[in-house]
Amino acid sequence: MKFIYIITTSIRFVLKQRVDLNQTPFCVSLVKQYSTWGSKKQHRNVKLNFPLNRMADPKIEDILAPFRASVKEQGDLVRSLKTNGAPELDVKKAVAELKLRKKILEDKELALAPSDATFDRAKMEDLLRRRFFYDQSFAIYGGITGQFDFGPMGCALKANLLNVWRSFFVLEEQMLEVDCSVLTPEPVLKASGHVDRFADLMVKDIGTGECFRLDHLIKAHLEKLAADKKTSQATKEECQDIVVKLDGMTKQDMSDVIQKFNIHSPLTGNELTEPIEFNLMFATQIGPSGLIKGFLRPETAQGIFVNFKRLLEFNQGRLPFAAAQIGNAFRNEISPRSGLIRVREFTMAEIEHFCDPNDKQHPKFDSVKETELLLYSACNQMDGKSAEIIRIGDAVQRGLVANQTLGYFMARIQQFLILVGIDTSKLRFRQHMSNEMAHYACDCWDAEMLTSYGWIECVGCADRSAFDLTQHTKATGVRLAAEKKLQEPKVIEVTVKNYQKTVHVEEIIPSVIEPSFGIGRIMYALFEHNFRMREVSIPATGSCAFEMLCSPFERECRVSTFPQGLTRLDVSHKVDDSSGSIGRRYARTDEISIPFGVTIDFDTLKSPHSATLRERDSMGQVRIPLDVLPSVVRDLSYGKTTWTQVESAYPKFEQQENTKAT
Q1: Which of 3, 85, 92, 662 is deepest in the core (most CB within 10 A)?
Q2: In 3-state terms, what secondary structure has residue 208?
Q3: Where is the Aminoacyl-transfer RNA synthetases class-II family profile domain (predicted)?
Q4: Euclidean distance between CA atoms 7 and 573, whole angstroms
Q5: Is 335 contained in some domain?
Q6: Distances in whole angstroms, Cα of residue 459 to Cα of each of 264, 405, 448, 560
Q7: Which tens digit of pLDDT belongs to each residue from 121-174?
């Protein structure tokens, strides 16, 4: 079932006159009042950093040239240190300086961005909370930072998004879907490396117990100190030097900085504890005895890896194949922030594509090789250059993307994101630099989306090699391997009994290509990319223009006089006969991204009976006979016809949406 919204004009109202609200003194004052509403609220007109390669302004490039040269200079130093086998600490310090120079370059790019490239985050968040797309969990108890509840609108959007994901990947690519346990025994995550490596340093306020991530706290304090006019030049330089070296500092180094600069709690001024290593996984005990230690899973992937043998058997022992899983994961973030972007509980949709480590070609790669992606390679980052638009076939051929299978999934990821409503001008793929990449990974690219928070990673696509299956094999003694049929049999030496035998297959541990989708982050990007302000109404109203596939109410219709026709066509119905102007009722439906609306008015009572059909994004209206209206609605909802075709087939209906029935 698809969704449209039906509005009825009550018969008790008589339309006596149309009022131009922009011309009345009362409404002019309203315009002034609402144009300044919330102007002092935080997150007003956040500037967006659009990719500068799309601006193509030589003057801007002239200004940025020295900043790019500075980044390239440091990038060359990092390469040189690694090539010459310099000490790890020296490399880390050089990389930290490179990151600092990249940040200065990005800030300069932001300052030079067009002045109209802004976004009013506060108004969007007001709408999302007012219409209960989502809100902070346990709000009546004061709320919990980093935890959110989705309301009816958010649940519908999320369900539709996941349905599209499942259809686009699981069904179309014939993947094997699993649903594994959230509770994970400690040995599993010990083998995967999460127990030992999944930690950050933090400190506590000794008075309140408030926790702070140590590197963030030091950086914020020293940057504030360096910006103070009273601070001496020597101290400023020392602060800047420490910030650059933070990534390479040990626990003791950071403790010394806390003592030297007398850093206290930024909230209360209380003293802080010594640095503590904090594992980001939620620990728990499984069973009443408390003897079995476990964790809430930090990712869904491990459930697929430990079931590899069963999945291979289900696939009749053949490679390549892919398994997929949708589910929640948990990370006990020290300082969650930025709304849905950094939370403690989040939904992931992950794919693990198992393939021969010596043959990573993909049978369907030719179908996507002409796809153009905006690629921000590691080399371009280190050289201070912008991202480039490159066909994925060329990127693989040049070795920029490691192999066909990785390239295939990158192209498919972009197709999916565009399908659900991500703005292509705000989408890029950024390659991990060597210092970011896991030691076992061959190549890794993040699909990043531009938001008012900057570029945020929403999908990761990595070649994880054979690390996970190898680790679980070592930990359990169970061979998580596949057999590969040889083109020609070969003779091998068997050392135990010292004899030879001819084999026709060989055992291989498959490599894994992993696309990992953060559903909450994709939803947030969808909110920003599809939020619209309509200045033509009084007051200016916001709306969400989601694609039909993801629109929260795609499966519901609000109707008045012809419910049976819509029911037969799989469109449910309700009635909106609330008071107020037609325009206000339309605005309410636009806020929740309802694509079409039908209005039953006085002309509907005349013969031949008809009603108006309105399209959300253009706000255009046509008048359609009632006997064909249900089928038109169905065809629009299922993509069998377009709004342009409907407008050409039926007479337009002209009416101001800001008028009120009197």
Answers
A1: 3
A2: coil
A3: 262-539
A4: 11
A5: yes
A6: 37, 16, 7, 43
A7: 888 888 888 888 999 999 899 888 889 999 988 998 999 999 999 999 999 999
